[in-house]
Amino acid sequence: MTRFASSLRPRGHKARASFALVAAALLASGCSVSPKPLTDDENVSRIREDMSVIMAPQEPFSGPVSMHEAMARAIKYNLDERVKLMEMAVANQQLDLSRFDMLPRLVAGAGYTGRNNESGSESLNLATGRRTGESTTATDRHRRTADLGFTWNILDFGVSYLRARQNSNLVLIADERRRRVVQGILQDVRTSYWRAVAAERLLKRIEPLEKRIEAARKNANAMEAQRVQAPLQTLSYQRALVDTLRQLQTLRRELVAAKSQLGALMGLPPGENFTLQMPPDVTGKDVPAITASVETLETYALLNRPELLEESYNARITADETHRALLKLLPGIDLNAGLHYDSNSFLLNQRWADYGARVSWNILSLASAPDTHAFSKAQEELVAFRRQALSVAVLSQVRVAMVQFRELSQEFSLNADQAAIDRRIRQQYVNSSTVGQQGDMSVIQAEVSELVSDLRRDLVYADLQNAYARVMVSAGVDPMPEAVPSQDLTTLRQAVSDGLGAWQQKAGGTARLQDLLVPATTTSEKAPGEKAPVEKAAEPKTDSKAAPVAARNEEPTERKAAVPERVTVAELPQPQAASMSAPMTVSYGPSSRSETAKGYSVPLSALAPMGRASAR
Question: What pLDDT, in 10s, does the model give residues 18-30?
Answer without folding.
Answer: 666 777 766 666 5
